[in-house]
Design brief:
With about 150 residues, the chain is mostly helical. The chain has one domain (about 30-150). The protein has six helices and two strands. The protein has helices at about 30-60, 60-70, 70-90, 95-100, 115-120, 140; strands spanning about 100-105, 145-150. A two-stranded antiparallel ribbon has the order 1-2. Helix 1 packs across helix 2 (about 60-70) and helix 3 (about 70-90) packs antiparallel against helix 5 (about 115-120). The longest helix has 30 residues, at about 30-60. The chain is extended and about 80 Å long.
Length: about 150
């Protein structure tokens, strides 16, 4: 059979690199502060909804069970769940969605889930919020090797 016109041969195509080669624009401190405010508002709303759902499902016994748990433990578990859920699935929290930013690894790709968990645990370091006052990224970015970049308009 002639190789020129073999209907069973694999098709030939040129592979074009379609990767985005534009430089990443790292989100500024004020933009990140805005996302923090939106995220904390959404976090408190989700915490209230959690309490409401527990109260509706389990009644007074559920509320008593929540009140027996130390506030620091309950709040930490809820904050861990909030950030791991949103950043683990979409690499974006509600605040990042509003302001057009996302979490990426240093290669510009979606971070691994372990990096997201590490980011979230770093938020519990005392005075971590002040780590943004320096020239570099905050500790919850520098330790797990992530960045928050602008993605709107891309």
């Amino acid at each position: 059979m002639n190789n020129e016109f073999n209907p069973y041969s694999a098709p030939e195509a040129t592979v074009v690199d379609v990767a985005d080669h534009r430089p990443r624009e790292v989100a500024g401190k004020w933009l990140r502060f805005g996302t923090l405010v939106i995220d904390y508002i959404c976090f408190y709303i989700s915490a209230a909804l959690f309490g409401l759902i527990v109260g509706m499902l389990f009644g007074p016994a559920g509320i008593v069970a929540i009140r027996k748990m130390p506030s620091i433990v309950l709040g930490s578990l809820m904050l861990l769940s909030f950030y791991c859920f949103f950043e683990g699935i979409w690499a974006r929290t509600p605040g990042k969605l509003v302001f057009g930013t996302a979490v990426v690894n240093l290669q510009g790709e979606k971070p691994r889930f372990s990096q997201i968990v590490g980011r979230t645990f770093c938020r519990f370091i005392p005075f971590e919020a002040f780590s943004f006052l320096g020239d570099g990224d905050g500790w919850h970015d520098s330790i797990p090797k992530t960045q928050v970049v602008r993605v709107r308009g891309r």
